[in-house]
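Sat 14:20. Reprocessing the chain from the morning session after the first attempt stalled halfway. Input below, unchanged.
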Amino acid sequence: MHQAMSSWSHLTVTFTGLHSNQPQQPSRNFGNQAAYDHGEGGTKAMEPTKKFKDFVYIVEVDESLYQQLDALREKLRKSEQSRLAAENRVAELSAVDTGFYSNDATPALLQARANSVKQEIQQCASSLFTLAESRNLSLKYPFYFTTKTLNPTSFQGAKQMQFISLVLQASLSEVIFLAFESATYAFTLNGKMEPFDAPDAIKKRRMKMYNELLHMEPQQIIAENQDFESFVAQKRSSMIEYLKSTVFTGFDRIDGDQFDIKFLRLCKAVWLLHLVAFACAPASAEIFRVPPDSPYMPDYMKENEDIQPRTDLVPKGQANKQRFVAFVTVPGFTLRNSCIKADVCCVDSLC
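Finished this time. Tokens:
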């Protein structure tokens, strides 16, 4: 009430000033009508009632503008919050996909485990090559090739050794990745299904097992994990049978500490890869294989530079010619929008 009286007092003073003998120039023009009307006898002031109405109108307009300004500020504030939330989400996804969280199965971690399997396959193939060489075993031909023109018997020297190494890598890959699609190797091996549990809980349990086994030696894992022990025994048996029936002539057994050690390391590497692949959320990673004679697709496959044909030796007009896969040494995987490319060897790289 006191505040209202004070405002009226101010207005009274202003209006009194308008009736002074000296014309008063207004400091502000209230309303659309001029502050003063000019007529006979000189200048006369606007009526106080009209002046007050114009004042009230301008106050109401100002209040409306303030409300619109506040609404605009609130809209901008919410927009900024949404932008920051989106940026945080992108940063979070980037961190996950680059493997910053050790407890999450990410494309980066899947790639790292696939690379580890590739290295162990190469080591195991090298040991197997030494073993076969010491026994004078002959490699069976044509092995993986079907319709593409290729004569492996013509290979000599380093080219022949490279070809045999790649064939052995493909053989190991064929056996070690058999039944990888199954969510658990244990189910494939002993025919028993695990008790039902929530899918998220199973994925977390797989990731926990991965972290526990990561720095353990294969022999220690065999002693503590019955499923892994069964897996190794089954894969070793399958490997011997495959080498005997498909790869070598006159092959009957594997005996050699070096090969056994490297084969155990290979089993561990693919076991860990399997755990990561099926720990991925919301959907598990999917494996894809590349059959012989498949067109080479760079978006899904890669070939080691050391086996690719030299570009300066490619005849003119054939630089962009379609290439075809001879065999795959490590399968590929897809996870969300990421692709872990398959390692392959193309026919023209062996010619």
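The CA atoms of residues 131 and 256 lie 8 Å apart.
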